[in-house]
Amino acid sequence: LVTCGMIIWIGIGAAALVGVYNLMGGNRFISGMIMDLDVAPVVIILVMMAILLVLGMFLDWIGVAMLTLPIFVPIIIQLGYSPIWFGILFAVNMQVSFLSPPFGPAAFYLKGVAPPGISLKDIFVAVLPFIALQLCVLAALLMWPNMALWLV
């Protein structure tokens, strides 16, 4: 019950932060600043993916979504990409964060059902190939957006 309450408060705090941020014009400021950069759109998306990966290592996916998507989605639309494609990229990115140390919740779930001789370090080492596979999927979706959108 306490955990549910904490998750709800995190959601409320993230929503309040994003609401004030948007009211103050922060999303328009960041969007304008990013769109004025003289870089390829794929570089902007790669930076977004890196930000999502790092945030996903330390925050719950709901908090990451509430903090980043109101900023990132308008930029994605302005760059001419599909928000559905970006949503799939976000979901794959969050899957990586479920396994990534230091707070990968899936690893802690595995620790809860593992035999007593298995340490958390053993679990994090064992999930490294799965993290690598998910990063390969993320790279493939970035290179071939039609895979995610079924536009073959």
- How far apart the termini lie comes to 46 Å
How does the major sheet shape up?
none
Helix content: over 70%
Order of SSEs, N→C?
A: HHHHHHHHH
Strand % is under 5%
Q: Rg, please?
A: 17 Å
Q: DSSP helix count?
A: 9
Shape: globular
Let me know the average pLDDT.
Answer: 86
Which stretches are low in confidence, meaning pLDDT under 50 for 5 or more residues running? none
What structural category characterises the helix and strand content? Answer: mainly alpha
Q: What's the number of extended β-strand segments?
A: 0
Number of domains: 1
Subcellular location: Cell inner membrane
Keywords: Cell inner membrane, Cell membrane, Membrane, Transmembrane, Transmembrane helix, Transport
GO molecular function, one term: transmembrane transporter activity
Function: Part of the tripartite ATP-independent periplasmic (TRAP) transport system.
Explain briefly what this protein structure is.
The protein has 152 residues and is mainly α. The protein is built from 9 helices and no strands.
